[in-house]
Amino acid sequence: MKVGHQTYSWEMLGASWRGTADDIMDMVAAAGYQGVEFSNVMIGGHEGRPAEFLAALRKRGLIPAAFAYSRNGFTDPSGWDEDLAGAQRALEFAAHLAVPLALAGPSSDSHDDEQRKLAQAYRFFNEMARRGRDQGAIVAVHPHSHHTSLVLNAEQYDALLAATAESGLMFNPDTGHIIRGGQDPVECFRRHRSRIVHVHCKDVDAKDGWQPLGAGVCDFPALVKLLCDTGYEGWLISEEESDLVRRDLPGAMARNRAYLRSLGV
Fold first, then answer.
1. Per-residue b or e along 97-119, where b marks 16 or more CB atoms closer than 10 Å to that residue's CB
2. What is the pLDDT of residues 198-230, one digit of tens each?
3. What is the CATH number of the domain that holds 216?
4. Pairing mode, if any, of strands 203-204 and 210-211?
5. For the chain, how many structural domains are there in total?
């Protein structure tokens, strides 16, 4: 398994982060990660320039791990054309990098008419998975646990993955979001192991507050063992969202890398 870092740790800083994508790469490399997963929000001047982006990564000894794309939750039929256009650009970028495209899970500011909204999201994910298959790129879904999420509990995860199985959509689980949705990550991973292509590692405490890896309730040793025992060869992506991001992000990144090394990865 390879270990990388996701760029949401900088995205969550909002206007207080004034650096560039290249600055993020420098920090990821300095913390000892092998690669990085950028999102469409944080890619900056490298957007649409995969060759330039790869050169910037190689300069720092990094590998691209995945490319993440989010917009407005993919649940509004009136946004279909814009959703597809943006995701298609992201898919082409990911295909050039030879990495999976990770699509954010279904979400909406309102939880009214959830089934209709979910059906729209399933339609979108299936379309993008088919496009990925045609272009030789893997497309995965990354459910989250923010207040807008429409996919939180085990039943909702099962429904999402069942509705997208035929198209070949893969699964990008996030340990922290799984726990915050009331699930056991080990059981979730075991149940959907055949669909897992990319993994996000986050930790939370008993009150669903974000914590550094190993400081919360997630059983990472059991998860790593499960992945190793089942031949997983993808990425483990650290995605720090605790208060340490604002106090000492480089320190938090280094701490998480050391914790994962203590598990043998």
1. bebbbbbbbbbbeeeeeeeebbe
2. 999 999 999 999 999 999 999 999 999 999 999
3. 3.20.20.150
4. antiparallel
5. 1
